[in-house]
Design brief:
This protein is of the alpha/beta class. Helices cover 32% and strands 24% of the residues. The strands form two sheets. Strands 1, 2, 3, 4, 5, 12, 13 and 14 form an eight-stranded mixed sheet that branches. Strands 6, 7, 8, 9, 10 and 11 form a six-stranded parallel sheet that branches. Helix 6 runs parallel beside helix 7 and helix 9 crosses helix 10. The longest helix is centred in the middle third of the chain and has 22 residues. The two termini are 41 Å apart. It catalyses: 4-imidazolone-5-propanoate + H2O = N-formimidoyl-L-glutamate.
């Protein structure tokens, strides 16, 4: 057995595993027992997967004589799983400064919608991100957007879950029924061809179920067709108007035992790709606790993307994706609104350091 490993992160004040029994997700009562090791270490193998995690003394004894490509002394620091952003729209050109100005002047989202209206995730601690198409609305442009996402997956260190979102809006000049038929009869069959040929990988399907966009019947038909292709279902529901497709109140959902995940909704109309800021807002505006927000941005967000068997917690054989924070308590990542750039010392993906930030501040 090889005794050479890719990375050792040792002597961390806290190692936040999230969970340690192979849980696929966490609900309210499970989150009360968020798994944290005081004075811990973690080893990532040459395959980029977690080999061992545990008390620093145990890891030191277990790996005595082993060699490591890189060693990080995390004394006085915290280690967390890489954050998972479960909902983004990152593929677009230009900007929407004029729409931001419209909203500041009192326009609603649907006012902007009717008017026609480089990824920086890793620096904020995201190591797995969901990326949607949806700004094309025709076969050629939707495929082009999915190809851009595929290129990003092949060239960037961040892990990407790709989502077809051709039902993001009803194109001008078409009815809901016409747009639905185009998706079912034209776009999805071509998508199936490219997926079968191995030229395109798509993981999820999304529909914007909303008044003035896709109704419940059309949404069900499109999502079922995507499910038949083997895609995970991920959809916008009850975002602006109650349509009985989902329930947006996080506190009510948690109390009912629903699995709650978070996403930034990064897009040209809401330019934020910081999951620490999203977690802070979830605590302040949706009355989530900090452990609930962290679980929602790690294991539960990974579960929403069908990836919780490989991401979302620090467990053996999962991807070695993690953050090292220059603080003795993990809660500072959420507590310090907008302060993540002064806290996140390292971002690591599959045992490789992708962000090395020497501008952190000592707390």
């Amino acid at each position: 057995m090889s005794r050479n490993y890719r990375l050792l992160v040792k002597n961390a004040k806290q190692v936040v595993l999230i969970c340690n029994n192979g849980e696929k997700f966490m609900t309210k009562h499970e989150i009360l027992n968020l798994c944290v090791i005081e004075n811990g270490s973690i080893v990532i193998g040459s395959d980029g997967l977690i080999t061992a995690v545990g008390p620093a003394e145990t890891i030191r004894d277990q790996f005595a004589g082993a060699t490591f490509d890189k060693v990080i002394d995390a004394t006085g620091m915290c280690v967390l799983p890489g954050l998972v952003d479960a909902h983004t729209h990152p593929v677009w050109a230009g900007d929407r400064v004029h729409e931001f100005a419209m909203k500041l002047a009192g326009a609603s989202y649907m006012d902007v919608h009717r008017a026609g209206g480089g990824i920086h995730f890793t620096r904020a601690g995201t190591t797995l991100v969901e990326c949607k198409s949806g700004y094309g609305l025709d076969l050629h442009t939707e495929l082009k957007m999915l190809q851009v996402i595929e290129e990003a997956r092949n060239t960037l260190p961040i892990n990407i879950s790709s989502t077809y979102c051709g039902a993001h809006a009803v194109p001008k000049g078409k009815t809901v029924e016409e747009a639905t038929e185009d998706i079912l009869q034209v776009q999805l069959p071509r998508l199936k061809e490219q997926m079968s040929a191995g030229t395109l990988r798509v993981d999820n399907i999304d529909v914007f179920c909303e008044e003035g966009v896709f109704d419940l019947s059309s949404t069900r038909r499109i999502l079922q067709a995507g499910k038949d292709l083997g895609l995970n279902i991920n959809f916008h529901g009850d975002e602006l108007h109650p349509m009985n497709s989902a329930q947006p109140r996080a506190r009510d959902m948690l109390e009912a035992g629903v699995i709650v995940a978070l996403g930034s909704d990064f897009n040209p109309n809401a330019y934020c790709c910081s999951m620490p800021i999203v977690m802070h807002l979830a605590c302040v505006n949706m009355r989530m606790s900090m452990p609930e927000a962290l679980a929602a941005a790690t294991i539960n967000a990974a579960y929403a993307l069908g990836c919780s068997h490989t991401h979302g917690s620090l467990e053996v054989n999962k991807h070695g994706d993690l953050l090292v924070l220059n603080t003795t308590r993990w809660e500072h990542l959420i507590y310090q609104l907008g302060g993540h750039q002064e806290l996140i010392r390292y971002v690591i993906i599959k045992g490789n350091i992708v962000v090395d930030n020497d501008k952190t501040l000592d707390l």
